């Protein structure tokens, strides 16, 4: 019928997507578990009055694998950075360092 995946029908109610809000300096967010293979980047979709970076880790108290700089924006923006995630079953953690607060809509392991 020509409808794309995820597209709403005209008679369906409109809902805002779920997201994590109020992320401030030092906040940590974790997701378990992903089967990783040949990943070289991470993309996040964020908004908010935040100026800093999201550190990407695969252990809660481990060393960062990389960081994704973010800037002030009141609309959803995609930010991508090269981050080498080891092959195998991994957790993914984000730790925000910076000023202001951000909202996280999604992330993608690339």
Task: Explain how this protein is built.
The chain has 110 residues and is an all-beta fold. 0% of the residues lie in helices and 65% in strands. The chain contains no helices and six strands. Strands 1, 2, 3, 4, 5 and 6 form a six-stranded antiparallel β-sheet that branches. Strand 3 and strand 4 (66-70) form a beta hairpin. It is globular and about 45 Å long. The model is unreliable at 1-6 (pLDDT under 50).
Radius of gyration: 16 Å
- State the helical fraction: under 10%
Number of helices: 0
Structural class, from secondary structure content?
mainly beta
Instruction: Count the E strands.
Output: 6
Stretches where pLDDT is under 50 for at least 5 consecutive residues are 1-6
Shape: globular
Main β-sheet, in a few words? 6 strands, antiparallel
The helix-strand sequence is EEEEEE
First-to-last CA distance: 31 Å
What is the residue-mean pLDDT, rounded to a whole number?
A: 91
Kindly estimate the percentage of residues that lie in beta strands according to DSSP. over 45%
Quick structural gist:
This protein has 110 residues and is mostly beta strands. The chain has strands spanning 20-23, 28-36, 39-57, 66-70, 73-85, 88-109.
Task: Please name the defining characteristics of this protein.
110 residues, mainly beta, disordered N terminus
SSE map:
Blueprint (H helix, E strand, L loop, with lengths): L19 E4 L4 E9 L2 E19 L8 E5 L2 E13 L2 E22 L1
Antiparallel strand pairs: 1-6, 2-6, 3-4, 3-5, 3-6
């Amino acid at each position: 019928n020509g409808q794309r995946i995820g597209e709403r029908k005209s008679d369906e109610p409109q809902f805002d997507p779920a997201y994590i809000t109020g992320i401030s300096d030092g906040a940590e967010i974790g997701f378990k578990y992903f089967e990783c293979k040949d990943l070289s980047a991470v993309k996040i979709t964020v908004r908010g009055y935040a100026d800093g970076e999201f550190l990407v880790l695969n252990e809660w108290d481990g060393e960062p694998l990389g960081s994704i700089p973010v800037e002030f924006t009141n609309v959803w923006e995609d930010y991508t950075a090269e981050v080498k995630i080891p092959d195998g079953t991994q957790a993914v953690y984000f730790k925000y360092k910076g000023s202001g607060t951000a909202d996280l809509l999604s992330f993608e392991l690339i």
